[in-house]
Amino acid sequence: MGPLLCAFALTRQDQLRPPGQPFRRSDRHRMLHQEVIPEDPTFRFHHATYDYLTSTAPQFVDITDDVVEVVRQSDVLNGVATVFSRHTTAAIKINESEPELLKDMARFLEEVAPVDREYCHNDFTIRTVNMTEDECPNAHSHCQHLILSASESVPIVDGRMMLGRWQRVFLVELDRAKARQVLVQVLGV
């Protein structure tokens, strides 16, 4: 078996083609990039866990430099970096690091799920599951997390994360000042 030819922006017909049949060029799609991957590339796996201490909520903590460092240490030239929050009240998002925009995004989150709204999760007289001695009313932060996510993935090409000009990776604190853990996992060749 020879080297594998990777091609992007294929049509659905191309994806479903019978084995041995050539790819068809579609007028609606064009080949953006192709790369020959050696038959036996050395697959690499690297990960690191970072601890952060947040100070308020909502808070956008720029962790891009830490993620870039993990990618650098991994020696992966082509692959993907996944950044994952190990919490249900702290998210990972890619966005712009502009101070006024960060204020707007914080206000948006507070409007979507305000702290002072009535939530069943916060009623400790009826809630019986996942309770701890230091439990705090934080349903708003879980609801805000619904529109964010626990992880983001960023392609790595030629050893560099393919973030856009203004894109930064954020840990988004939604609950209160807390110790948080973020896992960065890099896979590729």
Describe the fold and architecture:
With 189 residues, this protein is α+β, with helices and mostly antiparallel strands. The chain folds into two domains: 1-40, no CATH class; 42-117 and 136-189, Jelly Rolls (Sandwich). 20% of the residues lie in helices and 33% in strands. It has four helices and ten strands, in the order E-H-E-E-E-H-E-E-H-H-E-E-E-E. Strand 7 (151-157) and strand 8 (160-161) form a beta hairpin. It is elongated, with a radius of gyration of 21 Å.
Task: Write a concise synopsis of the structure shown.
The chain is 20% helix and 33% strand.
| Number of separate structural domains | 2
Can you tell me the CATH class of the largest domain? Mainly Beta
Counting H and I runs of at least 4 residues, what is the number of helices? 4
Name the beta content range: 25-35%
Order of helices and strands: EHEEEHEEHHEEEE
Task: Please tally the β strands and state the result.
Answer: 10
Spans of at least 5 consecutive residues whose pLDDT stays below 50 are: 1-12
The CATH level-2 architecture of the largest domain is identified as Sandwich
Span of the ends, CA to CA? 19 Å
- Give the averaged pLDDT, no decimals: 87
The major sheet is characterized as: 5 strands, antiparallel
For the largest sheet, list the strands in their spatial order: 3-10-5-7-8
Q: So what's the overall shape?
A: elongated
Rg value? 21 Å
Structural class: alpha+beta
Reported by name, the CATH topology of the largest domain is Jelly Rolls
CATH level-4 homologous superfamily of the largest domain = YjbQ-like
Helix content: 10-25%
